[in-house]
Amino acid sequence: MRQIQKGIYITPTKKLLYKTSPLKRIYTPNGLTVEKLKEDNPTYKTRILTIYRNLIRLEKYLQFHKFYKLTYNNLVKLKIRQDYEFRKLIFFSNFKQLNENELYERLINTINFIHNATLDSLSNKTERPISIEYKILYSIIKFEISKSLPISIKNSDLKNSFFTIDNAIEFRKIERSWNMINSNDKINNIWWIENNGMYKNDVCFKYLIDLKNFKSSNFPDNMIQSILDFEKFLILQNEESKLLL
Length: 245
Description:
Blueprint: E1 2-5, E2 8-10, H1 34-40, H2 44-57, H3 66-79, H4 84-91, H5 100-117, H6 132-146, H7 156-161, H8 165-179, H9 186-189, H10 201-213, H11 222-241
Antiparallel strand pairs: 1-2
Helix pairs in contact: 2-5, 3-6, 5-6
Organism: Pichia californica
Protein name: Increased recombination centers protein 19
């Protein structure tokens, strides 16, 4: 495995093939850069929107089952509105907080990462191995689809706080419905959103804190530990490779 761009590690035979990329009509062969992002988009909001559009644009090129592609789409819509720093602090306190330029760099790296994943499939019949980007993205989507609490957990508060991709989909449907009407009750009814449009940390991540603190005579439960381990290792992957997965 070699490094082809700061923070991006890929298999030896893989490149950021922007000359054959679905993004080739928008950016240079080197892809989107922080400088280009800031030059074309004067505000933080428009820059994040540009990142979001690029991530969504890549969905149709992923060689996944249709349901997996839909899950990817919903994950992008969720994660772009989550507080990564809060999520990171649940597991680690020794990583410094990202500044704005570092955030843009990671988001652009993530676009490149997803782009590389679109070049592969599980039925890859070439001599080179399936890319690590494809394997990681595929694993993340499988994890989010299958994530669940063990039946043995009786704590109703923990069950109520458990956040899954299905919760995010339902919240988005409700939010879109309220956005279509002009009502004074809108803010009260969309209680999971901050004033800046981000998802509230307690809504998205309280279950991780609860799982870390969960005490049981059978603890560690394998399902609980697998959820915590996956989330923890994904943070480490992000910090090692300068990504925001």
